[in-house]
Each structure stands twice: as structure tokens, then as C-alpha cells.
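Item description
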Amino acid sequence: MIKHIVFWTLQGSALGHTADENAREMKSRLEALAGLVPGMLAIEVGIDLSRTPSSADVALYSEFTDRGALAAYAGHPEHLAVADFINAVRVDRTVADYEV
């Protein structure tokens, strides 16, 4: 199994919306990807509560059966559309993929 974890820090405002509004939109769009790609086992999106200087604004935790399923997710048109939105509102992205 592959675990795919991503953290994003958002711009204070982007696309005419606040960071909080964009975080909620990201959460909605990412969660809508559930079940679209064969081999995706789980997807969970959280918005940071702590608001510390070292916090990310949005976190994604997802699981895939194997590397092929993760690659299919990465190239899926619906995922790419969400990624376009995220890239327009984020400042930073950190990702880790690992096998268990």
C-alpha cells in the first residue's frame, strides 16, 4: 500500500477569496475525488486548527493499492483540474509518498 500525504500553505487571498474560503473549497474539491480512480483506498482532507507559524493550512491523507494507482490518480483529469485550482491559491506544497 502507498500512503500519499500533502500539506499546503495558502496565499492570504487568491482568486477573490480568503485563505479560509479557498481551504474549504480545496477540501470540497479533493473529497469529490473519492472513488474516481481504481486503487484509491482512502482520502481525507483536513483544515488546520492550530494556526501556528509552522502549520500548513490544508492537509491531505490518502491511500492507494500500489504505485500504479497513485500514478493513475496523479494523471487523472479530475485530479489535474483540482491541482490547477490549488496551484492558483497556494504558496507552498510539501508531499511525502511511502510504501507500507
User: Anything to note?
Assistant: The helical segments are 19-31, 67-75, 77-89. The chain has a mean pLDDT of 97. Residues 2-99 form a domain with the Alpha-Beta Plaits fold (CATH 3.30.70.100).
